[in-house]
Amino acid sequence: MIIVTSGHVDHGKTALLQALTGTNTTHLPEEKKRGMTIDLGYAYLPLGDKTLGFIDVPGHEKFLPNMLAGLGGIHYAMLIIAIDDGIQAQTVEHLAILRQLQLDKILIVLTKADKASSSQIDALKHTIKANYPFLADSPIFVTSATTQQGITELRDFLTTLPNLADPNKPFRYAIDRIFSVKGAGTVVTGTAFSGKVNIDDELFLSNGEKVRVKNIHAQNQPSKQGLAGQRLALNIHTDIERSTIQRGDWLFHQPAQFATDRITVQLNPEIPLAENQAIHLYHATNHTVGKLSLLTTKTLPPQTQALAEIILDKPLFLSFADKLILRSGDNKQLIAGAKVIEINSPKRHKRSEVRLKFLQNLQQAENINDRIALYLQQTAVEVSYLLWIEQLNEADLATILQQNHAVRFQQWCFNQDYQAEKNQQILTALSNYHQQHPDQVGLGKARLYRIATLNQPEKLIYHFIDELLAQGKLQQTRGWLHLPEHKIEFNAEEQALWKLVLGEFMQQNGQPLWVRDMANTLSIDENQMRNFLYKAGKLGYLIPIVKDRFFLTETLFTYANIIKKMIEKQGDISVNQLRDELQFGRKLTVQLIEYFDRCGLLRRKGNVHILRDSELFN
Predict the structure, then answer these.
(1) How far apart are CA 378 and CA 544, in angstroms?
(2) pLDDT > 90: percent of the chain
(3) What residues contact 48, with CB distance under 8 A and at least 6 apart?
(4) 61: which DSSP letter?
(5) Whether the predicted pLDDT of 29 surpasses 70
(6) DSSP labels for 524-586?
(7) By the 8 A CB rule, do 267 and 307 touch?
């Protein structure tokens, strides 16, 4: 468990931690020379079966960015105030930051009691409670690092604090230092926001590289496992240079794929805010700049919540409810705290009534089940996105989907209303097609998808079509999808003619036939034969690759699958390669391959053709 200490410069933070833990947290030569904390300092206090970790953050105004970098994933803080000095400028700013981070508990630690009278102590306590109502329930400890007054009482209270970080979520770890150890290799240090990590685990850097954990120090002690809420040093094996890993990078159990530069947040301003302004943003060990835009109002007074959009200069790895600190464009003033509501926010219609209502519902959702239900309200959502935005593991997501009566198919999650809506769109599209083309059998699966549900997940819509077929709400005739009540058939005379035509095709050994040749062979009027062969095409028996030149449908399916196998083996196919494979003339081969281009099976790329839709001709 990690506890942050904050307060004005020279108010005794480092001395207090040394009294509590026996460790001097100044680690840089410049810090020791100047007698102040410039970067983050760390100390540890073993207490029975657990070890407390302390982050000593800088108190000087110039070093506030380093202080902000220490406040990611923290649940507890100690605000240090020297009794003889009272509340100072950085005390006020640190208080504002701690309030904006909405920590679970803030302890008030009054230091240098040996230099103050009881009346000074009482007056300072009264001032704190009177001027900062959010500290009304915060315990106050009066201490002296010199005389050890109050140190035991403070230490005893700290032992009662529970670790609120969740070890059951996916591992998420913010890196703040990188260095090399002779004989060990690369070591990173940081705070585990959630989850757990074991020796030999494989993790993913936020730059996409995979690493293996060779050794772990948890709370400054060798360990086989690191847990959420602990400060960890991880000795990692990686094939990349140490210099490519930077402060602000992350380690995750799952591949990093959801960095975002456009987020929606719940904003809690410290000062009056205008509709648009430049900002500096701090999250865990990351610092970037961006543009803040209010979504529901032109101006916003202090201490009033509102929705806002932030466009970031650098993409960050954020998830729901992550806490942010915002400073002014010149980085001289704290302007707001924020909580992440949405990542990858849309670029258009961001202030529409429907969208704002969705965001407000997300804000008001009581639990993760309610939020998952909102994500799936009108669309299908990728599993990987749900796992990331809510920091879930697969088992927990499966439980939530079951409780919400939602469905997962392969990589997609959706609710029953979504499937019912898409099914109706599919059936309606087919009904309209039948009305407009009563002489056609129906549509191919790919074309039906494009007409009815374009921009929806293709494999998911194909799954819905398969289920409609299984339920009898759709039927398929020789590859064509149609409604059960829609039929076109040969009459008795046409059935007899079809037997003759089929016999001619069977004698061709996979070659196509022209309308004129078929008419001459069977001594039938050419126009009559043309109409008949096109009707056979509508019924799915024949396919014209050019005007009046027909293949048997089964034959064309066979050639399509030969092409698929050739492309699977060699990546593409040329006219000459297909000609040699089928033993056709060049003209016929060109007609055939251009037909496959037109229908969407293939796509021409220079002098070759590549596979465009592997689902066609299955």
Answers:
(1) 41
(2) 64
(3) 159
(4) G
(5) no
(6) --HHHHHHHHHHHHHTTSEEEEETTEEEEHHHHHHHHHHHHHHHHHHS-B-HHHHHHHHT--H
(7) yes
Of the candidates 20, 83, 29, which has an alpha carbon nearest to the alpha carbon of residue 56? 20
Distance CA 560, CA 479 (A): 14
The candidate with the shortest Cα–Cα distance to 550, out of 498, 608, 602, is 498
The model's pLDDT over 324-376, given as tens digits with 9 standing for 90+, comes to: 999 999 998 889 999 999 999 999 888 999 999 999 999 999 999 999 999 99
Task: Read off the amino acid at residue 328.
Answer: S
Structure tokens at 122: 């009482």
Residue 71: predicted pLDDT? 57
* 425-441 per-residue burial string, b: 16 or more CB within 10 A, e: under 16: bbeebbeebbeeeeebb
Give Dmax (Cα) for the chain: 122
Task: List 460's β-bridge partners, or say none.
Answer: none
Angle (CA) 59 61 66, round 5°: 65
Task: Count Cα neighbours of 271 within 13 Å in the Cβ-side half-sphere.
Answer: 11
For residues 9 and 81, give the distance between their C-alpha atoms in angstroms, rounded to a whole number.
10
Residue whose token pair is 């850097």: 205
Q: Which of 557, 593, 551, 562 is nearest to 575 (CA)?
A: 593
CA distance 592 to 550: 11
Q: Is the pLDDT of residue 382 over 80?
A: yes
- Residue-wise pLDDT for 308-332, tens only, equals 999 999 999 999 999 999 999 999 8
Q: Are 578 and 592 in contact, with CB atoms under 8 Å apart?
A: yes
Assess contact for 172 and 252: CB atoms under 8 A: yes
Q: How far is CA 333 from CA 87, 97, 281, 517, in A?
A: 18, 11, 12, 86
The rounded percent of the chain whose pLDDT value lies above 70 is: 94
> What helix, strand, coil percent values describe the chain, rounded to 5?
35, 30, 35
Rounded Cα–Cα distance for residues 89 and 271 (Å): 16
| Beta carbons within 8 Å of 14's beta carbon, 6+ residues apart | 24, 25, 26, 37, 41, 56
Cβ(208)–Cβ(222) under 8 Å? no
Give dist(CA 513, CA 528) in Å, integer. 16
Neighbours of 521 (CB within 10 A): 14
